[in-house]
Design brief:
396 residues; alpha/beta; Rossmann fold; formyl-coa transferase, domain 3; 2 domains; 6-stranded parallel sheet; 3-stranded antiparallel sheet; 11 strands
Length: 396
């Protein structure tokens, strides 16, 4: 037996659907929290099915129980589970969580130590709080689509569900913070974020350009919005990302491209000058880079300390020697999907295994064992199965 995982003493009840909520719970599950995924008898938003890559990735390291929360008896089952749980996570609209009995006031009355983590589209209060929200809507409303893409081509969505994933990460941090606080206060807390808040937070320095300097950032394409040269360039056989924006890096870059004259050119003499004359500089850089391959430039520029790298497809990223060395993809065996690889947690805790301990569960796979774990007797478990409140698992 190895050492216990860092969150092994934490029990999480997962009431989430879609992506943002499951992403938050996955962070806790990956570090050993006992995650109980509560599912509806009618099914949920499985994003292509329970053996789709998306579902297998989102719901690893969890166990599943089916409870009909529309029934008062189902809500009673959930409330008994809350008595000994540490965290409940949900991303339902406000009326739904009140109707089904897992709003914070109700849960805190049952267990004052409980932490409720909530994600919504636009916030728990305010004029848009009753609206449903999805990632692309938040990308548009939060400004991301207006700063993404080539200037003049119109708004472009980011290539991943960035507000979903960011909201999930933010909520996980909030839950861990509340768990730490509970050691001192002995009390739980309601922790919440939204796709809109997380999206604006993700803008980072682009948002600060507006709040501090009233500078509304435009699209910058593949160039860095404020520094240069820093962006993507064509080579003889592909593309290269590089960062040589100033100081020693700029000098080393010019010399490696056999363009030392740029160091004395008044158009490129300073960061601000290079920003003002970005189009001219980029054209000159690309002209030089077109004389050699991406692989050669990566080797040459890294040798003189200039950060650079290829522009990979997803398949090429996973075959990269550094990615292979880091062991980003981890194996797990699923009862119906077979032996698969899942992307591990991106954080490393030195000395703690960063593996996939459990494949995503079959629907209701652990219903009986979880009821027993939460103190239900065998007679109660049988009665709940007969009544359909916690139905027995059907083959997926």
């Amino acid at each position: 037996m190895g050492e216990a995982m860092p969150l092994a003493d934490i029990t999480v009840i997962d009431l989430t659907i879609a992506r943002a909520g499951p992403t938050a719970v996955r962070q806790l599950a990956d570090w050993g929290a006992d995650v109980v995924r509560v599912e509806s008898p009618e099914g949920g938003m499985e994003m292509g099915g329970r053996t789709s890559p998306d579902y297998l990735n989102l719901h690893r390291n969890k166990r599943s129980i089916v409870i009909d929360l529309k029934l008062p008896e189902g809500q009673e089952v959930l409330h008994r589970m809350v008595e000994s749980a540490d965290v409940v996570v949900e991303n339902m609209r406000t009326p739904v969580k009140h109707k089904l009995g897992f709003d914070y006031e109700t849960l805190a009355n049952i267990n004052p130590r409980i932490i409720l983590g909530s994600i919504s589209g636009f916030g728990q209060h305010g004029p848009y709080s009753q609206r449903g929200g999805v990632d692309q809507i938040a990308q548009g409303m939060g400004g991301m689509m207006r700063i993404t893409g080539i200037p003049g081509q119109g708004p472009v969505r980011a290539g991943v569900a960035i507000s979903d994933v960011t909201a999930g990460l933010q909520l996980a941090v909030g839950i861990l913070t509340a768990l730490h606080e509970r050691h001192t206060t002995g009390k739980g807390r309601w922790v919440h974020t939204s796709l809109l808040e997380s999206m604006i937070g993700m803008l980072d320095f682009q948002a600060a350009r507006w709040t501090v300097a009233n500078d509304d950032p435009p699209q910058a394409g593949n160039d860095h919005p404020t520094l240069g040269p820093m962006g993507m360039y064509q080579t003889l056989d592909g593309h290269l990302n590089l960062a040589a924006s100033g100081g020693r890096l700029w000098e080393a870059f010019c010399k490696e491209l056999d363009a030392s004259e740029w160091l004395e050119d008044e158009r490129f003499f300073s960061v601000s000058a290079r920003r003002e004359n970005k189009a001219q500089l980029n054209a000159l850089i690309e002209e030089r880079l077109m004389h050699d391959t991406t692989t050669s430039w990566v080797e040459r520029l890294n040798k003189v300390g200039v950060p650079c790298g290829p522009v990979n497809t997803v398949a090429e990223a996973f075959s990269d020697p550094q990615v292979q060395h880091l062991g980003v993809a981890k194996p797990v065996s699923h009862p119906t999907a077979g032996d698969i690889n899942i992307v591990r947690n991106a954080t490393n805790l030195e000395g703690v295994p960063n593996d996939i301990r459990l494949a995503s569960p079959l629907k209701g796979q652990h219903s009986e064992e979880l009821l027993a774990q939460f103190g239900f007797s065998s007679d109660e478990i049988e009665s709940l199965a007969r009544s359909g409140v916690v139905p027995p698992r059907n083959p997926d």
